[in-house]
Amino acid sequence: MSRARGDLAPTPGQTIGPFYGYALPYDGDSALVPPTHRDAVRLHGRVLDGAGDPVPDALLELWQADPAGRVPREPGSLHRDGFTFTGWGRCATDDTGHYAFSTLRPGPTTPGTAAYFAVTVFARGLLDRLFTRAYLPGDSAEDRAALGADPLLASVDADRRSTLVAGADEHGFVFDIRLQGEGETVFLTHPRH
Fold this sequence. Notes:
Keywords: Dioxygenase, Oxidoreductase. By secondary structure, the protein is an alpha+beta fold. It is 11% helix and 24% strand. It has helices spanning 12-15, 20-23, 141-149, 151-154; strands spanning 41-48, 59-64, 88-92, 98-103, 116-122, 130-135, 167-169, 172-174, 177-178. Mean pLDDT is 87; it is low at 12-16.
């Protein structure tokens, strides 16, 4: 069968989803700690496409250290019990591309480095997930020094580093993710990906 110019069949990667809203969300998925926890902070933002439009069907995973900088090794991430901090959560975006996690402020995993949230993005049109980091903003001189000395952050072009640093708000942190175009978030390669 011949096709007219520009009449291309979709590739498998363009037809496989997203099915995130059906198979992956679970009760308490975005609440690493209950929002009423005395140390709870909110990490929230929007996922935007290259035109700056919201991506209403993205799914984000959050991985992080606890406030002392320890990487939790607790089992049962899918079964929230209200007191065990597992350092992992999942959140789908809404119709405006917004997501929100209730969590704890992470500590630096190595002395002298900056604290961050590790974020994984799944979205339509992505054949592979994307990895990025949301560093905590430099609220103190010590935090600013850690941001300046962080090896990964220092390896990023100076004019793009801001795409990896969350902003502060009255409830915690704001981190928008731009998938492409002007202001595109810096995405990382993962050694086992």
